[in-house]
Write a structure and sequence with these properties.
The chain has two helices and no strands. With 84 residues, the chain is mainly alpha-helical. It has one domain (22-83): Helix Hairpins.
Length: 84
């Protein structure tokens, strides 16, 4: 029997669950940052946290970029509708 494939949670291109809102991702990023800044984690754990933090940061950036593009599309549509 073939083993089911599960999404890689550290893959920034992985589909996000509904609870992966910008706010939820950013809150987790803040938690990860606080743990790293505390400096009392083992090296292996620190590396894993750093990797998670980088993935979270990429996902947050992607969501921000998508929101910015959507706002620009709305602005262009509004400006175009007002000119006619």
């Amino acid at each position: 029997m073939a083993q089911a494939e599960f999404p890689n949670p550290t893959d920034p291109e992985a589909p996000e669950a509904a609870e992966d809102s910008f706010e939820a991702l950013f809150a987790r990023l803040e938690e990860v940052t606080a743990q790293l800044e505390a400096g009392d984690v083992a090296l292996d754990r620190a590396v894993a946290l750093y990797e998670e933090g980088m993935t979270l940061a990429q996902r947050c950036q992607r969501l921000l970029s998508e929101a910015e593009q959507r706002i620009e599309q709305l602005r262009e549509a509004y400006d175009g509708a007002g000119a006619q």
